Amino acid sequence: MPTPMSPSATARDAYFDALVREYQPNRPLPGAFYTSADVFAVDVERIFRRWWMFAGHACAIPKPGDWFTCTIAGDSIIVLRDQHGDIRAFFNTCRHRGSRICGTETGHATHLVCPYHRWTYDLSGRLMANTAAEFGVDPAGLSLHPAHVRNAAGLIFVSLAEQPPSFDEAFATISRKLAPHGMERAKAAHIVEYRVKANWKIVFENNRECYHCPANHKEYIRSTYDVARDEARLDPRRQAEIEAITERANARFRALGLDEGDVSSNMTGAFYRCHRTPLMEGFVTQSLDGKPVSSLMGDFKQHDVGTLRITVFPNFWQHSNSDHAVAARLTPLAPDLTLVRGIWLVDKDAVEGKDYTLETLLPLWSTTNEQDWTICENQQLGVSSSRYRPGPYSKLREPNVAHFLEWYLRETAGWTPASRAAE
C-alpha cells in the first residue's frame, strides 16, 4: 500500500508545480530548480528513484561471487555476478532487522552474510536459513529485495522502481554499437571522484553542449569535431569541408564493419545518445596529441575508429575509443553538490608501464573534467543570485540542453511543449 503523502510533501509538490509553470521553453530553468531543497527532493523521488541509473561496468565483477555497491537515491545497492554468471542487483538491507549487508565498495563472496545476526543469502538473493520453526515465517518470503538490472555490452544500469520505464530501445542500440569495444573484457585503469559544488542538472547541462568549448577546452577541441561542426553550421563555406572529412571517416568505418559516424551530437532517442563520431584528421584516439595511449580493446585491429559517444539521462556518459574509454557517473548529494565518478578503462590484458601509462592516459579528460567542474561551480553561484533570470538558448549550439530539460520536466511534471501551448 502506498505511503500517504505528508502535508509537507503536498506543499512541496504544489511549489514544484508552480515553478514548472514559470519555465519558458528554450531557456534554462528558473533558479529554484538548481537551489531548492524541495526541488531536489522531487528530483530524487521522480527521477533517481524511478529511472534507469548507470551503476558501474560489468568488468568490475568478472567472476561469480564478485560484487560492488553503489548508492542510488540514498539506497545502497549490491550489484553482483551470480553463480551462473548473470548480473543481479539487490537492495543492501537484511530482511531481518535491516542491517546493511555489504559494508565496503567491492568484494567477493560465495554467500552474502549479514554481519549483525549472520543471516545468509545465496548469490540469487535467497535466504538460506530455515526461519519457519524459530520465526514462524517461510524463508521463501525473505529473499533480498531485488532491483531491476540490465547489462548493455558491459554497462550496468539499475532501476529502483517496481515498474521502470522501458529501456529496450536504448539497451538494443547501446549493446550493438558498443559490442566491438569489448567493455566486458576491460578493466579500470584509474578511478577518481570529484565533489562538484553544483546541482546535478547544471553538471549534465554542461555535458550537453560544446558552445563553451572554444573558451574553456583547448585540449579537448584538438581531437573532436564539436566546434568544427558548429562553425560549419554558422559558415556554409566550411560545410563541404566537414562533410568530406566525415565521408572519408564513414568509408573507413564501413570497411571495418562499424556503424557509420557523423558530426552530430543530437540524441539517438528520447533519453539516450549512442553514435560514432570521427576524430579530427591526424588523431586516432582522444589524447593530447592524437596518438594511442594503450593497446587495442575489444575486436579492433586498428586504432582509427572514431569515438563512440554514449549518454544516458540522468547520470551517465562515456567516450569509447579503440584503445581506452572514459566514463562519468553522477550521484546527486544535495541541491548544490554532485558526486562525479570518473573511470578510465583499458583492455584487461594491458599492462601499466608497458602498454599504457597514467601520464599519457589521463591528461585529456582530467583537464577537461576539472575545467568543467569550475564552470559548473561558477554557474551554481550565479543562478543562486537574486537577479538571475534565464537567458535564451542558442538554436544552433544548445538544442541538446533544451532537449534534456524538456525530458526532465516531462518526467517530473508531465510537461510538454503542447501542454504549455494549451495553458
Characterise the protein shown here.
By secondary structure, the chain is an alpha+beta fold. Helices cover 31% and strands 21% of the residues. The strands form 4 sheets. The protein has a 6-stranded antiparallel β-sheet, with helices on both faces. A 4-stranded antiparallel β-sheet has the order 4-3-2-5, with no helix packed on it. Helix 6 packs across helix 11.
Shape: globular
The radius of gyration is 23 Å
Classify the beta-strand content into a percent band: 15-25%
Q: Give the % helix.
A: 25-40%
Low-confidence stretches: none
Q: Given the structure, what is the number of helices?
A: 13
Query: How far is the N terminus from the C terminus?
Result: 34 Å
Following the backbone from N to C, one meets helices and strands in this order, namely HHHEEEEEEEHEEHEHHHHEEEEEHHHH
- The class by helix and strand makeup works out as alpha+beta
* Rounded mean pLDDT score: 93
Number of strands: 15
Major sheet details: 6 strands, antiparallel
Strand order of the largest sheet: 10-15-14-13-12-11
Which secondary structure elements does this structure contain, and how are they paired or packed?
Elements (H helix, E strand, L loop, with lengths): L6 H16 L9 H4 L1 H12 L4 E5 L8 E7 L2 E7 L5 E5 L14 E3 L3 E2 L6 E2 L9 H5 L12 E5 L2 E5 L8 H11 L7 E11 L3 H8 L5 H4 L9 H9 L4 H17 L16 E6 L29 E6 L3 E5 L4 E10 L2 E11 L10 H4 L1 H21 L15 H15 L3 H6 L1
Antiparallel strand pairs: 1-9, 2-3, 2-5, 3-4, 6-7, 8-9, 10-15, 11-12, 12-13, 13-14, 14-15
Helix pairs in contact: 6-11, 8-9
